[in-house]
Design a protein that fits this description.
Layout: H1 19-27, H2 36-49, H3 54-59, H4 61-67, H5 73-76, H6 81-87, H7 97-117, H8 120-125, E1 133-134, H9 148-159, H10 167-176, E2 180-181, H11 188-195
Parallel strand pairs: 1-2
Helix pairs in contact: 2-7, 2-10, 9-10
Length: about 200
């Protein structure tokens, strides 16, 4: 059954007519996320997305989950060279040697943050006092690729040993996990998420 464009809600301008992307935008993007394992999943996926489109990653997400042990950082932290080589033969994921190695490095750094702060969630959301930043962007062009806050988080993560955590990747991560509400004001999700803070 085809959708009726007249009855479809207004969405952010980056959403294409793709059911995978629409479902992600409507149900996940910008929703405040506090589960450590899912936070780690987004961290890994955002690293793999560097230089690629997000829809490419979304379409391979289930394959990534299978290949990377459901993104369990304790398991991924133990990956050895043989496991990395095996992942490089997996056509279901992005086969990039540096990004695969970074997943293990980041899992090890992630566990250290959990140990220091009690949870990665506590560490991450501490940057915004536990409350999402509610932006009021009118157009897609206004939405930044990075901010002073993403610069600061990126710098701190790098200091803690994380890889593929440049400011632009960090900001995409912040958007995905709801630290910032970057739905444009005309998008039906903007008001819904603003009410949930």
């Amino acid at each position: 059954m085809s959708s009726n464009p007249a009855s479809d809600p207004v969405r952010c301008g980056w959403v294409h007519d793709d059911p995978v992307e629409i479902a992600y935008h409507d149900n996940e993007w910008g929703v405040p996320l506090h589960d450590d394992q899912t936070l780690f999943e987004f961290m890994v996926l955002d690293a793999f997305q560097a230089g690629l489109s997000w829809i490419t990653i979304l379409r391979k997400r289930d394959n990534f989950r299978k290949a990377f042990d459901q993104f369990d950082p304790k398991v991924i932290a133990q990956y050895d060279a043989a496991k990395h080589e095996a992942l490089l033969t997996d056509a279901g994921i992005i086969r990039n040697r540096l990004k695969i190695a970074a997943a293990t490095t980041n899992a090890q750094a992630f566990l250290k943050v959990q140990e220091e702060f009690g949870s990665f969630d506590t560490y991450l959301w501490g940057w915004v006092d536990g409350k999402p930043i509610q932006n009021q962007w009118v157009t897609l062009e206004e939405v930044p690729a990075r901010t002073e806050l993403s610069d600061a988080i990126s710098k701190d993560l790098k200091k803690r040993g994380f890889k593929f955590v440049g400011s632009v990747i960090c900001y995409a991560f912040m958007q995905a996990i709801g630290m910032v509400n970057d739905h444009t004001v005309d998008c039906f999700r903007h008001a819904e998420l603003a009410q949930k803070r």
